[in-house]
Write a structure and sequence with these properties.
The complex is a heterodimer. By secondary structure, chain A is an alpha+beta fold. Helix content of chain A is 57%, strand content 18%. In chain A, helix 1 crosses helix 12 and helix 2 runs antiparallel to helix 13. The longest helix of chain A is centred in the N-terminal third of the chain and has 37 residues. The relative contact order of chain A is 0.20. Chain B starts with 6 loop residues before the first strand and ends with a strand. In chain B, the strands form two sheets. Chain B has a six-stranded mixed beta sheet with strand order 5-6-7-3-8-9, with helices on both faces. In chain B, strand 1 and strand 2 form a beta hairpin. Chain B has a single domain, classed as P-loop containing nucleotide triphosphate hydrolases (Rossmann fold). Chain B is globular. In chain B, helix 3 packs parallel to helix 5. Chain B is α/β, with parallel strands linked by helices. The chains are: A alpha+beta, B alpha/beta.
Chain lengths: 370, 225
């Protein structure tokens, strides 16, 4: 029997307490995993919307959110004329109410936009996109939750439109969205000639800095960012990420308090036992290591259970129709490592006071303790 | 006093009080115990027998006086750990075994503290269990044992790391007469076989009289009988 086995035996002897500690950590892990996976997935989907077949994103400088960004059609034309540019695709974002659904994302795009070509057309003719000004198109998930098909009429905002086609897109946001020709969207949202963002594909990626400098010099009100650069600097992504970590860490703090409580209870109820270990030759360090060992085992079990719960919840959410396909979990290795480290840190931090208390147990006094 | 072995315990003018000095339990107590001796500390409850054992075992600190146990100073932390690990074994009236662990696991605890290899520990456990006739109970949990079996387990645990001194605090106090006699005889036998000194606190005169020396503890003082 090594100290590790004593740790295991101690946990098994106090199953209920150990279970409460494990539950605390596992809920923290599950909460953090779920929130981060959803947020990272959502950011990833949004990034893919913006970066479809492009190198640079051009949008209004100092804007708090891309929904409020305006790049005029003159500016789009100017960008297209740059020698470095192979293609430029303007896009206007908006939120529309469709039937009983008050918030559906609307994309105003041109007929040449690559996402129309890459989508799998389930109904309607892609070549007809933008030909008629009373026709819009739906992602397959949107068609599903709105319960309409090509040829039907739907109410969008205060207008009535014909559904010209339905196409399937791998991106959850796009698949749950409404697509309008750009000019129609500009009219609908009363944005005159504005686009929210322009996705730019360069002939040579190496000409990026030249393109960026030229655009920003010609049009001081707009900014051009590489896709990667945009992801790192976009405030909404930062806020989402920060919120996800903050909520996750709060969940862990609760788990940590659970571990602290479990370990304190465990130490208090074993005062005599700890004194006996000291009498048998255990040093302060060994007693401390035993308590930390127990907390670490609780954390480890909590991480395993928490990952199980988290992955289970994500699987259910991804297949729940009510989420309209907006949940596309993305779990990176760094997130997993971050969660494991946070769980271990929380559990160990929660065990600090109990461990110090245990190491200071005076055998003579403790042996009188009932 | 016997002169057959080296001095294992030497205490001079040891004083201990509680409650900020209002209750003095030991008044300048001095004693010597040699290897192989079985010394009885005989006295009524509350006379200071356990306190003296606690001080010698480094479980508590004296207010005054000097102590040397197996050449170590039990008031120093470093010496205390060495004492508890290698030099002395402790037996309590209520045995203080760890519940839910088996007999074998309880006996192994001191070996765990010093990192004795598993095979060596297992061999030692079997040897000790044979000596105190508890081998058939090695895989039973403490709560399934009788009082005598528990105390025999405690004796095994105390002997696990081959101590030179056993401090036994009323080891027969919670046992019936017959079992008490058996446990006491076992302790004496272990001391003789292994040349271990035993300092045994008891309030029962019949056990005190079987010790090689008896020190009466009364009003915080020691007197040889």
């Amino acid at each position: 029997m090594r100290i590790l086995s004593l740790v295991l035996v101690n946990l098994l002897r106090h199953r209920l307490r150990a279970f409460i500690g494990v539950a605390g950590i596992s809920f923290g892990v599950a909460a953090m995993l779920t929130i981060l996976a959803i947020v990272t997935g959502a950011i990833g989907m949004f990034e893919r919307i913006l970066s479809t077949d492009s190198h640079y994103l051009v949008f209004e400088r100092n804007v708090s959110d891309l929904f409020f960004s305006s790049v005029t059609s003159d500016q789009v034309a100017s960008i297209r004329e740059r020698p470095e540019v192979e293609e430029a695709h303007p896009m206007l974002f908006g939120i529309v109410a469709v039937g009983d659904h008050p918030m559906v994302t609307c994309f105003g795009i041109e007929a040449t936009d690559p996402r129309l070509a890459t989508g799998e057309w389930l109904a309607g003719d892609r070549a007809m996109f933008g030909v008629r000004d009373d026709t819009l198109y739906l992602g397959s998930r949107a068609a599903e939750f709105l319960a309409v098909q090509a040829g039907d009429e739907i109410e969008v905002g205060r207008g009535t439109f014909r559904v010209g086609g339905v196409f399937k897109n791998e991106n959850g946001f796009e698949d749950g969205g409404v697509f309008m020709p750009l000019s129609m969207a500009q009219d609908f949202f009363q944005r005159e000639t504005a686009s929210s963002v322009v996705a730019v594909k360069l002939r040579e990626e190496s000409t990026g800095p030249t393109f960026k400098a030229a655009v920003e010099m010609d049009h001081p009100g707009i900014i051009a960012l590489e896709n990667r650069e945009f992801s790192q600097s976009y405030n909404s992504f930062k806020i989402l990420n920060f919120t996800a970590w903050a909520v996750g860490i709060c969940a862990f703090c609760l788990g940590g308090l659970g571990v602290a409580n479990t370990m304190l209870m465990s130490v208090f109820s074993r005062i005599r036992e700890i004194a006996v270990l000291r009498v048998c030759g255990f040093s302060n360090r060994q007693v401390t290591m035993m308590i930390f060992g127990e907390a670490s085992m609780i954390a480890l079990a909590g991480v395993l259970v928490g990952f199980g719960i988290g992955f289970g919840v994500l699987a259910v959410m991804e297949h729940t129709p009510q989420f309209q396909g907006y949940v596309q979990a993305s779990i990176t290795g760094s997130v997993m490592v971050g969660i494991v480290i946070t769980a271990l840190f929380t559990a160990v931090a929660g065990a600090i006071y109990p461990a110090i208390y245990a190491s200071k147990v005076q055998p003579a006094e403790a042996l009188r303790y009932e | 006093m016997s002169d057959r072995g080296e001095i294992i315990v030497r205490a001079k003018q040891v004083t201990k009080s509680y409650d900020d000095g209002r209750i003095t339990v030991l008044h300048g107590v001095s004693l010597e115990v040699r290897a192989g001796e079985v010394v009885g500390l005989w006295g009524a409850s509350g006379s200071g027998k356990s306190t003296l054992l606690h001080l010698l075992g480094g479980l508590d600190l004296p207010d005054a006086g000097t102590m040397e146990v197996c050449g170590l100073d039990p008031t120093r932390e470093v010496d205390r750990i060495e004492l508890r690990r290698h030099q002395l074994g402790y037996i309590f009236q209520m045995h203080n075994l760890i519940p839910d662990l088996t007999v074998e696991e309880n006996v192994r605890v001191p070996a765990l503290a010093i990192g004795t290899p598993r095979a060596e520990t297992a061999k030692r456990v079997r040897e000790l269990a044979d000596k105190v006739d508890i081998r058939h109970r090695l895989h039973h949990r403490i709560q399934d044992l009788s009082g005598g079996e528990r105390q025999r387990t405690a004796i095994c645990r105390a002997l696990m790391n081959g101590p030179r001194l056993l401090l036994a605090d009323e080891p027969t106090g919670s046992l019936d007469e017959k079992t008490g006699n058996t446990v006491f005889a076992l302790l004496k036998e272990m001391a003789e076989q292994n040349n271990i000194a035993i300092l045994l606190a008891t309030h029962e005169r019949r056990f005190a009289e079987q010790c090689s020396r008896v020190l009466r503890v009364r009003d915080g003082q020691l007197s040889e009988i």
